[in-house]
Amino acid sequence: MSFQSSDSSQREKAEETLVEVSGLKKHYPIKEGILKREVGRVKAVDGISFEIERGETVGLVGESGCGKSTAAEAILRLEEPTDGTITFDDEDITEYDDTELKSFRREAQMIFQNPDSSFDPRMSIGESITEPLRIHGVGPREHRLAIASDLLERVGLNASDVDRYPHELSGGQKQRVALARALVVNPRLIVADEPVSALDVSVQAEVLTLLKDIQTEFDLSILFISHDMSVVREICDTVAVMYLGQIVEIADTETLFEDPQHPYTRALLRAIPTIDAGTRGIDAALSGDVPNPSDPPTGCNFYTRCPEVVQPEGYDFEQENWRAVMDLRVALERHGIDVEGLREFVGLDAGDSITPQDVEKMKAELRREHDIPPSLTDSAAESVLEEALDEIVRGNGASAEALLAREFETVCGQSEPSLAESAAGHPTSCHLHSREVTQTPPLTDD
Ligand SMILES: Nc1ncnc2c1ncn2[C@@H]1O[C@H](COP(=O)(O)OP(=O)(O)OP(=O)(O)O)[C@@H](O)[C@H]1O
């Protein structure tokens, strides 16, 4: 994918683009009651745009539930998009009728994480691979099986495997057969949804190498879906990082790994297991849980967990402490604070009046629970925080919430950043890169 904007590169891009996804949304209605009235929407995919060039592999990466599979299914119209357009070879597939869809589905094949679910255990491998040909009247059977034998050899298996059955094959072999079956209809696009996640690491590498070889041989475009950054680096030319239904950064693979601009991308990269540090996991790199896509945060989707959330004007926090105070604020806003639990912690029964010592103990416990130090270095911030903690432990959560929202206002919680070119020259949606905060240099990991 090209991120240049000159006329010639635009022309070049137009000639080479196979798939163009623009403003794609897939919302699932949440219905309740006998009348099944719509009470909300799960915004599984919420306005994503990207392109796949001929012969290119584009990765969609992000944590579980960020909308990768839904995006893939909507792009193949296995799910009807709620909004947006998808062009394939310059034709808008969202306008296709059933006949056009049928022929599009031969051109765009899908490979899944678990090949078992797509094989009929009673069919031989040869029959499975050539079933699409049989349905389309390509025959006779011997001719079809000869095609299957040839494809099996191209994916690194034996021609004689046509007579074997799925249960006789290993996971890696089955994924090779799944690839052969996808190739039998001569597709131009393969959508691979976590195709190696269920395989051992050594087998993963073999299947990825095969995918690369097959891509060159058949001049395929690939949409590669994965939560695994190491695998994505191995196979993709371009990577789009998704968070809560949106693309937050998109760049060519090397740039994304060497010069990530979005704090979420940086967190994903920090979470890659290393030989020295072992597995940290994304949960260790970020605070809090992924918000529910039916109730995404206002402002930037990621601000409730972002380690680099922009600081309020006029205060001088250490970033780590600012994040901790934000976690307290997010907890208040999203589910409230368990004041009863705090009262129990200091030994108060229901109806007991609270002493100044109890208040201090409860506030100290709240700080401890939220990783906030006993005192903030910025005295003005400290007095706001103290006042908010006071309100919380006295049961006035709403006042504390209003105070923190007013005093510790951040652009990240107020307005949604657009996916715009960052200083590194590729699209990133983060206020650290938008004009309002150009004076604030992006924070580094250390
Ligand atoms: N049919 C559906 N109805 C309602 N919500 C759905 C439906 N399908 C998916 N979702 C929700 O949409 C969001 C995105 O799901 P999706 O499966 O696309 O994510 P993903 O990134 O592919 O995750 P995973 O890697 O776990 O498959 C999730 O919150 C999921 O619960």
Automatic annotation (TrEMBL):
Residues of the ABC transporter domain: 19-269
Keyword Chloroplast attached: no
Family: Belongs to the ABC transporter superfamily.
PROSITE patterns: ABC_TRANSPORTER_1, ABC_TRANSPORTER_2
GO molecular function list: ATP binding; ATP hydrolysis activity
Region feature (Disordered): 414-446
Biased composition (Polar residues): 437-446
Superkingdom classification of source: Archaea
Annotated keywords: ATP-binding, Nucleotide-binding, Plasmid, Transport
Pfam families: ABC_tran, oligo_HPY
Protein name: ATPase component of various ABC-type transport systems with duplicated ATPase domain
InterPro entries (UniProt xref): AAA+_ATPase, ABC_transp_ATP-bind, ABC_transporter-like_ATP-bd, ABC_transporter-like_CS, Oligopep_ABC_C, P-loop_NTPase
GO biological-process terms attached to the record: peptide transport; transmembrane transport
